[in-house]
Specification:
heterodimer, A: alpha/beta, four-stranded parallel beta sheet, 14 helices, 30% helix, B: 166 residues, alpha/beta, seven-stranded mixed beta sheet, globular
């Protein structure tokens, strides 16, 4: 029977020749991930169950990235729970502040997740690793506890949806625009419980960083995973990093999809998602006069080197609008050093931006840029829900890094061409 | 039997609305309960009574994977969430934390905010006492029923741990 890559990965990890959508399987997981918000509850369950050892100290990964560097005493306590657990269990992949990065940028970069993996993470953006050709999905803390102990978890094999991107993209159009446009088309529950598979010549032409952006936002359409079959670009990224052997899975010709959509990227222009749902997508040119107070460039969605270069391209030799606070957050220490070496920080600081150590911070209204009542931000992050970045009466507009940087200069939401 | 007041909400109630991330520096149920649904209705936590029912539209619990969401709802006293549909991770989390949730699109359409409702998990119906009507809900999948009969995921893990130790 012809299978999709999602089905193949689940079948292999469950020890079956084949699986079909709707089937429940118990499957071995390759990597299990938790952070400073979700892992403390899992560790508590781990203790209550009387478990002594995690199933594999090389495969349970803890990253304190949400409220770190510790924003307050309570956050410090939560991180302490992770730290002590990591030391007690001898976890190989625990990342302290100074090595820490935003988990979904960090794990691929460090070669911890590789193509063909089955990954569960107690963070909804775990789907990011789909860009490597891994089946990766978000779970809660109790599922995390179970997976940390047993090294396996139950899964319902999802139906797959195919998204074919073709054509050549225009200037300032990025993977972020592809995925926002897609969410705008199908809605925030358009792929609920389903595996999304991104394919086509426009995906082949996309650099790894922008592929991560796309897979990252599969959850914003309700997707269980956001897969891209590995190709040359993937393997060039993986080869120097991988800590383990990998396996390339591709969907069979004739595999069945509940839906297939074709998207001509040559017709796309930079878009923004208006408050308060990622599906409220509009071309930048159509949003009208919207003054802003803050811009955040970073997060597991768009805090990689490609994103910082795009921002720098716009910011170079220009100044941030006096009414705007621009916060730029490289997602990992490696990206941070790379940006520093490439001279991007010089450009950012000259422009009047604040550059931060890696943290999820402002994306979820945690710290490092919380919004006041009535304030409005443009962010390269993933969610614009009510109160997401601070006060329930604040607003978040999601965009790509070019638009975010240009808007920081203009003081309102603009197309990059307006300032370049 | 679950019986209480219906608190009605719309579509796509996300986990940031259920429990804003600014309160995630703790996992204490009592503390989380005080901020439950705060960004949708700042008084919700003080108004809701034990046994009440949240009635919501499509895709309830979308967004983050935070288990704090069902924990907050349960600790606030809500006995059940009735929705047209649930986001995937929330569905698993509610199940794992013992918060009853049922999919009942027809019931959600009919039930109004403030109605007295009853949820009969055994018989698989939601009753609107105020209106004198009842609506069948989608039964939970057999696999999950089985897991539930074993005492939930953690009990299953405990069983597996002891069988591998023995």
């Amino acid at each position: 029977m012809a299978m999709t890559m999602a089905e193949k990965i689940l079948a292999d990890h469950a020890g079956f020749e084949e699986v079909a959508p709707g089937q429940i399987v118990n499957a071995r997981v390759d990597i299990v991930l938790g952070n400073d918000v979700t892992a403390p509850i899992a560790i508590k369950a781990f203790r209550e169950l009387g478990a002594e050892k995690v199933f594999d100290s090389e495969r349970v990964v803890l990253v304190p990235d949400h409220f770190t560097p510790n924003k307050d005493i309570k956050s410090a306590q939560q991180c302490k729970v992770l730290r002590e657990f990591a030391r007690e269990q001898g976890l190989v992949h625990y990342f302290e502040v100074g090595q820490m990065g935003i988990e979904h940028a960090l794990l691929p970069e460090q070669g911890i997740v590789v193509p063909g993996d089955l990954v569960v993470g107690a963070d909804s953006h775990t789907c990011t690793y789909g860009a490597l050709g891994a089946f990766a999905t978000g779970v809660g803390s109790t599922d995390l506890a179970a997976a940390m102990i047993l090294g396996e978890l139950w899964f319902r094999v999802p139906e797959s949806m195919l998204f074919i991107y073709y054509g050549h993209r225009g200037e300032y159009v990025t993977g972020k625009d592809y995925v926002l446009h897609t969410i705008g088309l199908i809605g925030v529950d358009g792929a609920r419980y389903r595996a999304m598979e991104f394919t086509g010549e426009a995906i082949t032409a996309l650099p790894m960083d922008e592929r991560f952006t796309m897979s990252n936002m599969a959850i914003e359409a309700g997707g269980k995973a956001g897969l891209i079959a590995p190709d040359q670009v993937t393997l060039e990224y993986v080869r120097p990093r991988a800590k383990r052997p990998w396996k390339v899975y591709e969907s069979d010709p004739g595999a069945s999809y509940v839906e297939a959509l074709e998207i001509d990227v040559s017709r796309l222009i930079p878009v923004v998602a208006l408050p308060h749902l990622p599906e409220n997508v509009k071309p930048v040119a159509e949003v009208g006069e919207i003054p802003i107070d803050q811009v955040v460039i970073g997060s597991c969605t768009n805090g990689r080197i490609t994103d910082l270069r795009q921002a720098a391209q716009v910011l170079k030799g220009r100044k941030v609008h006096p009414y705007v606070r621009l916060i730029i957050i490289p997602a990992t220490q490696e990206i941070y050093r790379q940006a520093m070496e490439e001279g991007l920080f010089e450009i950012f600081v000259e422009a009047g931006a604040a550059v931060s150590t890696p943290t999820c911070g402002p994306c979820l209204g945690g710290h490092m840029g919380v919004l006041a009542e009535g304030e409005r931000a443009v962010a390269t992050t993933n969610r614009n829900f009510v109160g997401r970045m601070g006060h329930p009466k604040s607003e978040v507009y999601l965009s790509n890094p070019y638009v975010a940087a240009a808007s920081a200069i203009a003081g309102r939401i603009v197309h990059p061409m307006e300032v370049l | 039997m679950i019986r209480g007041r219906a608190w009605k909400f719309g579509d796509h109630i996300d986990t940031d609305v259920i429990i804003p991330a600014r309160y995630l520096n703790t996992s204490d149920p009592g503390e989380l309960a005080r901020h439950c649904m705060e960004d949708a209705d700042p008084q919700f936590a003080s108004k809701v009574r034990s046994g009440d029912v949240i009635v919501a539209g499509e895709n309830f619990g979308c967004g983050s994977s935070r288990e704090h969401a069902p924990i907050a709802i349960k600790a606030a006293g809500v006995a059940c969430v009735v929705a047209k549909s649930f986001a995937r991770i929330f569905y698993r989390n509610a199940f794992n934390t013992g918060l009853p949730i049922v999919e009942c699109p027809e019931g959600v359409e009919a039930i109004q905010d403030g109605d007295e409702v009853e949820v009969d998990l055994e018989r698989g119906v939601v009753r609107d006492i105020t209106r004198g009507e009842e609506y069948p809900f989608v039964p939970i999948p057999p696999f999950m029923q089985e897991l539930l009969s074993k005492g939930g995921l953690l009990e299953y893990v405990r069983e597996r741990m002891s069988s591998s130790a023995g």
